[in-house]
Design a protein that fits this description.
Length: about 375
């Protein structure tokens, strides 16, 4: 235990030093994060498309697009792609689906970028895009962009040729080269720097190189590696401990006040998973807060294999939610209503769960609005 405490103290000192550097240099300031540009693929696609566009407002013509292709090196397979006369489309509609970013030149060649931040693959998504891409007779390439460079699911991309790229490496490396290219365009340069910082936060890379090297040196000692292994093995359990201490008792009290039963399931760094039931619902439905496809969402859930809320009641529920100004909502077979909300981070755990009830109050507000929307609906 003493070795673990010593390791934690050493890493904490380095981490504190990194935080002080960020504070002193304004490194925490990030307008993209302030504006909520976190998990929405469309927003990231719009940013990337504007930078890649030879006719974009950055005024650099095709230089940024050429730089992007250069960073792919030999993995880029289209021969003599015409950068200067390329056209960029976002959310490009085809019979085979909407393509996030389509870049086509004047020689019937195309680059297709499927941008995945946290969403799951749609049925046969890349296969469908590949069918569409075959209309470009002189060459095409599909790029599958995720935060960490994951491959597409087998049902989506099995049997077709595509290149997996990541925000963590490919996009950040490209943008860092763009900073040098835009040295005489200060507004563009500073915007790119801000976006780099934002992506580093999303991919957990916002510690400077020197501090990373110090931590690596500390961990490289065999006794510290053993201690780090023990910490890693118990990391997830720490979040269950924190939620049991700071969240569950208050949520249980709130649930009782509303005539609900609170059922806690599990916590990780990014989420708290729980659901609420009511005897009047007779097991037909429940209110759930869960995490799927690397993204948090909450809503009203039913098991369609046991009971499916009718279309009439679904429609009434959504009409009531609309009156409560709950607009960003979706539905599926399992979820008559659900809506996404921002994943948790260590900052959220510290500021919104441990030091305050912000997260609790946000959950309570969502539950109360959903309960109001459910009033008068016979389940």
């Amino acid at each position: 235990m003493e070795k673990i405490n010593n390791l934690l103290n050493q890493v904490a000192i380095i981490n504190k030093k990194n935080a002080e550097i960020l504070d002193a240099t304004g490194g925490r300031f990030n307008m993209f994060r302030v504006c909520g540009v976190n998990h929405y693929e469309n927003t990231h696609s719009a940013i990337l498309a504007e930078l890649l566009n030879p006719y974009g407002t950055h005024g650099l013509k095709s230089k940024l697009l050429e730089c992007f292709i250069d960073t792919l090196g030999d993995y880029f397979t289209i021969v003599k792609f015409d950068f200067d006369k390329s056209r960029i489309h976002t959310e490009h509609s085809t019979e085979d689906g909407r393509i996030d970013i389509l870049i086509e030149d004047n020689q019937n060649k195309a680059i297709i970028i499927e941008n995945k931040i946290y969403a799951n693959d749609q049925p046969e998504q890349l296969k469908r895009y590949n069918r569409y891409a075959q209309t470009y007779k002189c060459g095409y390439q599909i790029l599958y962009l995720t935060l960490l460079g994951d491959n597409a699911s087998e049902q989506s991309g099995g049997g077709i040729s595509y290149l997996s790229i990541s925000y963590k490496e490919n996009i950040i490396n490209w943008l860092e080269k763009c900073v040098a290219i835009t040295s005489r365009y200060p507004t563009v340069r500073e915007t790119i720097i801000q976006y780099i910082n934002h992506l580093k936060q999303l991919t957990n890379q916002d510690m400077n190189i020197k501090n990373k090297e110090e931590i690596t040196e500390v961990l490289s000692k065999i006794e510290n590696l053993r201690a780090a292994q023990a910490i890693y093995q118990n990391y997830s359990a720490a979040y269950n401990y924190l939620i049991e201490r700071h969240f569950n008792p208050k949520m249980e009290d709130f649930a009782k006040q509303k005539g609900l039963e609170y059922h806690y399931e599990h916590s990780e760094e990014q989420y708290v998973r729980f659901h609420l039931t009511n005897s009047n619902w007779q097991g037909k439905c429940w209110i759930g807060f869960t995490f799927e496809g690397n993204r948090c969402h909450y809503g009203l859930c039913n098991n369609p294999n046991v009971y499916r809320i009718s279309e009439e009641n679904r429609k009434a529920l959504h009409e009531n939610l609309n009156k409560l100004n709950v607009f960003s909502r979706k539905e599926s077979n399992w979820w008559p209503f659900y809506a996404h909300y921002t994943n948790l981070s260590l900052d959220n755990w510290e500021n919104d769960i441990i030091k305050s009830d912000n997260f609790l109050n946000e959950c309570k507000d969502r539950i109360e609005k959903l309960l109001i929307a459910m009033e008068g609906i016979d389940f």
